[in-house]
């Protein structure tokens, strides 16, 4: 368990607000990230402290027994992309969004600032970090405008569906 906490890291790691879990479940941002809770947290009846190291370790082992990947990073890099994107970051399992269209923090991919991909089971994907499926969109999965090297119009055109004549559908429908 990583116990390092300093003021420089405060904005990197969230402060938890656990009320009933005693900060020993994956719901706790501190516990799931492998950190102990600290003064800035506003949790109740916290056991995720150095004083309770045995309980923390026991809870961690119990969770890992059921799910060996529970504490592994959800976002990982895939090597061997193309010239535009040599390293692509993806969510380990993908998202399952139905109504949010991958546009809110409910979406695991959106929350991790990565694009959706073939493992995602989302419907109506509009992830701003990259949409799954659909030709040109695949090139941009996991890329922001800044990372792509394209200007804003070129980037947006990558995500605009084309009609049969090569024009974009939005302008041909007079929108």
Automatic annotation (TrEMBL):
One of its GO terms (cellular component) is nucleus. InterPro entries: CRC, Tesmin/TSO1-like_CXC, TSO1-like. Keywords: Nucleus. Signal peptide: none annotated. The keyword Acyltransferase does not apply. One of its GO terms (molecular function) is DNA-binding transcription factor activity. Residues 12-130 form the CRC domain. Its main location: nucleus. Pfam families: TCR (PF03638). It is found in: Nucleus. It comes from the Eukaryota. Belongs to the lin-54 family. This is CRC domain-containing protein. It comes from Lactuca saligna. The lineage of its organism: Eukaryota, Viridiplantae, Streptophyta, Embryophyta, Tracheophyta.
């Amino acid at each position: 368990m990583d116990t390092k906490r300093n003021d420089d890291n405060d904005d990197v790691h969230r402060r938890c607000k656990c009320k009933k879990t005693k900060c020993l479940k994956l719901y706790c941002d501190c516990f799931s990230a492998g950190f102990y809770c600290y003064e800035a947290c506003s949790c109740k009846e916290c056991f995720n402290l150095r004083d309770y190291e045995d309980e923390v370790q026991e809870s961690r082992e119990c969770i890992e027994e059921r799910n060996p990947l529970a504490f592994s990073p959800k976002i990982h890099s895939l090597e061997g992309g193309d010239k535009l994107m040599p390293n692509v970051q993806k969510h380990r399992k993908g998202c399952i969004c139905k109504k949010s269209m991958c546009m809110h923090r409910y979406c695991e991919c959106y929350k991790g600032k990565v694009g959706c991909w073939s493992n995602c089971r989302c419907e109506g994907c509009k992830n701003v970090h990259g949409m799954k499926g659909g030709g040109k969109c695949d090139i941009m999965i996991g890329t922001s405008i800044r990372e792509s090297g394209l200007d804003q119009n070129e980037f947006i055109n990558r995500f605009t569906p084309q009609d049969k004549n090569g024009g974009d559908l939005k302008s041909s429908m007079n929108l």
